[in-house]
Amino acid sequence: RTEVHLGAMFRAVHVCAWRWRRVGTTCRWMQVDETRRRACWCTCAWKCEDGAWLERGNDATAAGTGWLGRNALDARPESLQTWAKHAMKTSQAWVEVAVAEAPSPSTVHALDRLSDAICQVLDAAELLRNVHQDRTYASTAQRVCNELNQFVHELNANPQLHRAVERALRAMQAKGCHEKCETFLVGESLKLEFENGGVHLLLEAKQRWQRSQEAEHRAAVAFSRNLTENQKLGSVEVPLSMLESHLPKHVLKTLLKGCLSNQDGIVNLTTDSSTVAQLLKWIPDERIRKQAYLSCARTPVENQGLLDVILVERSTQARLLGYDSYSELLAQNRMAKNPAAVARFLDELWLEIEAQARSELDRLRCFKKARVGNDEVAVWDYAFFTGMAKAEACSIGAIQVSAYFHIENCVRGIGLLAQRLFGLEASESNPSRQEVWAEGVRRLDFYDCRQSHRGTMYLDLYPRPGKFNHAAHFTVRCGICNDKGMVRPPIVALVCNFQDSETHLLTHQEVETLFHEYGHAMHSLLSQTRLQHLSGTRGALDFVEIPSHFFEHFVWDHRFLRCFARHHKTEEVIPRRMVEHLRASKRMFQAMDMQTQIVYAVFDHRLHAHPPSLGADCSALFRNVHNKYSVLQQPEGSNWHLRFGHLVNYGGTYYCYVAAKILSRLLWEMHFEADPLSEEAGRELALKLLGWGGARDPSIILQEYIGQQGLEGQAKLVPLLTSAA
Questions:
Q1: Among 40, 232, 484, 630, fewest CB within 10 Å belongs to which?
Q2: Which among 514, 547, 481 is positioned nearest to 408, based on CA atoms?
Q3: pLDDT at 5
């Protein structure tokens, strides 16, 4: 990975310009020099004020006083719009540089700076539209996202930029630069983005493609927004006495706080996904569980029409670009290079676990019959009876376990893992009110052994009205490195919605969620790329989910948990026997759990790998897929896919979750099962897996890190790692 540092590259260009002037070829290079000067001035003028990375290589580790540590952002929504306008102006200047350059790596570097100018604003706006407590600010952030996405589409359709990248790639190949060179990989990635942006299309087709993109984007935003608007979701009535008898106190308080009504001992609850999950887990009345499930699975009804639009427009875009399906289009930037490889992987995995799943269902039927007198297990029975079976078999309850996972202990666990594996020290500071988007947001900064700042992580852990209602890792700013280390530290945000905001005790499942998102954050912080375009999690989607799933394994190992998991009252270390029972409960019904993930993946894959199934056909497809790949049957009238938010952000690639579970387990067994806190294993993980970001072929990374021995007996993975159809 031999690269020229960006500042040195600029100096080299100026030397070359001087030499070319001496032989009389002045016009072109003088033009490039002047264009670059204007672009650099434009970037530096803004970024000096903003406190970010300077053109001349200054290390901007100090935070500013604005939101997200950016002086460009303050309490006025207009500040985000101003920043966006300046980013577009800066980008136009870099467009001129890239087009005017002689074909060389500097063309790619210029486009990387262009990308950086836009992404810094777009990434910040994407976070703020999802989490900002001021809905006016969130609405402004949404408009900025729309404007910048449109601007990016226009850039991707710019034939001059496409030709500039093609010429630069040919020039690098002629000089022996190949796919192991980061600049070359960034150039290849940019070229693919241009081509997938319709740059080669004729004017009429290009305009149609752009209209299709805009229509898909509008429908996708509306689909996601509907999942957060209670008036568009269903409801279910539950006796207050039943809730008080069976729900943990913090869960009950959360549900009552958000209920639609509470009169005459009857509570009317919105059937948002979080509420329904709690009812299915705790309520013994099967009638209420069924009502809650079906209410959830049939709303919001508006999402069926929106999903139709999304699928039609994605199919349209793929056909305009010359692909048979949207999945085939996406495969160009995935480990699995064709849809057939994905279908083969999912089918082989299903066949491998089918017998075990049927055995688990038989066990669950016997368990239910012994307690309620009938053995018919419906989809709304699964969470309740599996939870009860696990608690009885393993003599363990969720409330007992939560006592050892106070949020302060879990945050200390995050810091401990970074220190033991990667030599990073986590330091928490109190962000100013002007720096964060809501009360209660926390800030961690990570430093290496030389006290060099490696990155900033914001933690937004509890729900509030209008907030994004799942868990996610947001990249706010990508990191950039050179030979001396981190030039510009990354900024990331972990957004969760843990239920108990009073005692601050997490369920073990919530701890697992926290470490999942933390795995994404470590991918960002430990990335060693010199260009931001492929930094951290900016790689193939079926690769970037592997580190996050890998970090989940730590919360199932007592050797790690004993370092931070202590009883919130007695300070007792979590008992080894309790962790052993947790691990035993995890193994119960694991084939049925995996079948659920396979159902989601197959459904998503078939929606995008074939001409789209719309309306009633889409509902029928989901039931058919569910009834084939799961031992549980989906009832008539269920439109569960109306709540499947991953169809928006992970459309055509949900299989990556299933693959990541298997691959991450392999990594754990090979490198960490013997010692989860091994410094040597941590260094290897950082160097050979996380450090590459997206700047290397992920199939090669995995084959080298896992090794041939690790892949033996894993034939189902071959289609993904080699794209053998």
A1: 484
A2: 514
A3: 34
Contacts of 483 (CB under 8 A, 6+ apart): 5
pLDDT digits (tens, 9 = 90+) for 128-179: 999 999 999 999 999 999 999 989 988 988 999 999 999 999 999 988 877 6
Burial 156-190 (b: 16+ CB within 10 A, else e): bbbeebbebbbebbebbeeeebeeebbbbbbbbbb
How far apart are the C-alpha atoms of 412 and 682, rounded to whole Å?
A: 18
Asked if 600 and 409 count as a contact pair (C-beta separation under 8 A), the reply is: no
**Tally of CB atoms within 10 A around 520:** 22
Asked if residue 527 has pLDDT above 60, the reply is yes
Q: What is the pLDDT of residue 176?
A: 82
Half-sphere exposure of 590 (CA within 13 A, CB side): 11
- The answer to whether 88 touches 43, Cβ cutoff 8 Å, is no
CB-based contacts of 722: which residues, under 8 Å, 6+ apart?
A: 699
- Indicate the pLDDT class of residue 296, thresholds 50, 70 and 90: very high
Separation of alpha carbons 51 and 61, rounded Å? 8
The angle, 0 to 180 degrees and rounded to 10, between the axes of the packed helices 616-629 and 590-609 is 140
Contact predicate 513/554, CB 8 Å:
no
Question: Whole-angstrom Cα distance, residue 357 to residue 360?
Answer: 5
In degrees and rounded to multiples of 5, residue 589 shows phi and psi of 65, 25
- Nearest Cα to 144, choosing from 111, 119, 114? 119
CB 282 within 8 A of CB 273: no
- Would you put residue 373 in left (φ > 0), alpha (ψ -120 to 50) or beta? left
The residue count for the chain: 725
| 249: confidence class by pLDDT, cuts 50, 70, 90 | confident
Closest C-alpha to 211, from 125, 81, 312: 312
Distance (Å, whole) CA 48 – CA 69: 13
Average pLDDT on 627-652 reads: 92
Q: Specify the pTM.
A: 0.88
**Those residues with Cβ within 8 angstroms of residue 655's Cβ, 6 or more apart along the chain or in another chain:** 336, 342, 345, 346, 542, 601, 604, 605
Tokens of 2: 């031999």
Residue 25 has pLDDT above 60, yes or no: no
Residue 48: φ, ψ to 5°: -65, -45
Quote the pLDDT of residue 725: 38
> What is residue 721's predicted lDDT score, i.e. its pLDDT?
65
Phi, psi of 488, deg, nearest 5: -135, 110
Q: What is the pLDDT of residues 647-681, one digit of tens each?
A: 998 899 999 999 999 999 999 999 999 999 999 99
Residue-wise pLDDT for 362-384, tens only, equals 999 999 999 999 999 999 999 99
The C-alpha atoms of residue 584 and residue 368 are separated, in whole angstroms, by 20
